[in-house]
Amino acid sequence: MKTKIIIITAISSLLFTGSLMAQNENEALRYSQMYWGGTARSTSVGGAFGAVGADFSSLSINPAGMGVYKKSEISFSPTIYYSKNVNTYRGVESEDFKYNFNVGNFGIVLAAPLNSVASDKPQWKSVQFGFGMNRLANYNNNIAIEGNNSESSIIDAFVSKANGTPSQNLSAFDTQLAWDGYLMNPLDTNNNYVRAFQGDIVQRKTISTKGGMNEWTFSLSGNYNDVLYLGATIGLVGINYTEDSQYDEVDRLDTISNFKSMSIKDHLSTDGSGVNFKFGFLAQPVKFLRIGAAIHTPTFFYRIEDNYTRNFSSNIDTAVYTFDPLESTFKYEINTPLRLLGNIAFLINKSGFVSLDYEYTDYSTSRMRSSDYNFVDENKTIKDIYKATHNIRGGVEYNLNPIVLRAGYAYYMSPFKSDTLNTYERNIISAGIGFRSAQYFIDFTYSNSNSNGKYYLYEGAVTEQKISSSSFILSMGLKF
């Protein structure tokens, strides 16, 4: 069991990020957060498409919106994504950026009328079947952190973890490396330790992440007399996440005895599969108003596999120590939170709409599981540090026929109970333009997201982060 605990901690801690807490709870949050995008039209109105319908993004938001389709449709949305990360650490500001090309959505909706003879009696007018993919999260980012530190080192975190443990029983992925690299010395005969060097060091960390979360949707909806719309979606969710990081401490001025530099390189690759179910309804009591609601079951990630590699080296005055790469693999499961959504849209004849979506998500209900490891401590941490959030999305569309103008805003609350631990609330603004005819459409959208938070190199070494990202989405579609 001790070996399994070491592996889990090594895979998920990544240099003790998160105040020496295992980052398992951070992985649970990463795969629980979903930002509704997909098509350019939906993104341009802040993702507030739950009550508007007749857009492929609605299959992942409120599947009843698919019932609004009168014609069949096929759509495709290539996307250019740009992220920028600015970190301030001990008074030094560092920034980095990354470009990524991806597909925001592609899919088909088939609309079939149920009655060929017009009737004044209430009846089911049509059914729709939809299949395709919507992108729910983008993990592409580059991060750079640098600053001088004469007060602490990551070795202090290793020392804190090692204290009380005999040297022959140290953790293979961290404290044993520091011991074998002569960066940690014995303090007394009670298995306590001390950092082997003191002085002003330069600390650097670079992180490169890539990947995303995609949802393959299988949806069915129905239209009852243009008054009631019902829909359901089976979502097959796939995640892929890769993180490469390098952490260095360097005696740049060459003033520290018995120390020149140390380096830790980590590689983490994650693949996962999950399934969820979505049910929704829309009601249109009057011509200008649609109201609706949807429930999303937890996404049951029944298979997540982490593959982790660590390379470690130290350079002291008398020798350079380079160790063979350490590798580990671990499989586990995550259940994300239940989601409740409310939707409303005011329809302005054929001139456009104003829409608003509300989403309730309690991140403290995420859970991690494994057949051969007990996640009791990690799940308790999830419950202790995360909270319920109330997210709002709103948008407006104005139709100049055939040109359509759109704008939107979305606000996602911080999932953390305490802002002293982290923040990461997110504000998203968007705008778009489209050309629509009876047979085809072309939409373009620009969306910008901003958030602030904290990143922990190790306990006591925290950076202030400003994260921004932009998406340029082009959607093309045919109606038939």
Low-confidence stretches: 1-23
- As a whole number of angstroms, the C-alpha radius of gyration is 26 Å
Amount of beta strand: over 45%
The largest sheet, given as strand count, sense and whether it forms a barrel, is: 14 strands, antiparallel, barrel
Structural class: mainly beta
Strand and helix order: HHHHEEEEHHEEEEEEEEEEEEHEEEEE
- The overall strand count is 21
Relative helix content: 10-25%
Q: Give the strand line-up of the largest sheet.
A: 1-2-3-7-8-9-10-14-15-17-18-19-20-21
N-end to C-end Cα span: 60 Å
Mean pLDDT: 92
Number of helices: 7
Judging from the principal axes of the Cα atoms, what is the shape? Answer: elongated
Structure description:
A 14-stranded antiparallel β-barrel has the order 1-2-3-7-8-9-10-14-15-17-18-19-20-21. Strands 5-6 form a two-stranded antiparallel ribbon. The radius of gyration is 26 Å and the shape is elongated. It has helices spanning about 1-15, 25-30, 40-45, 60, 155-160, 175-180, 375-385; strands at about 75-90, 90-115, 125-140, 140-150, 185, 195, 200-225, 230-250, 260-285, 290-295, 300-315, 320, 325-335, 340-350, 350-360, 365-370, 390-400, 405-410, 425-435, 440-460, 460-480. With about 475 residues, it is mostly beta strands. Residues about 1-25 have low confidence and may be disordered. The N and C termini lie far apart (about 60 Å). It is about 10% helix and about 55% strand. It contains 7 helices and 21 strands.
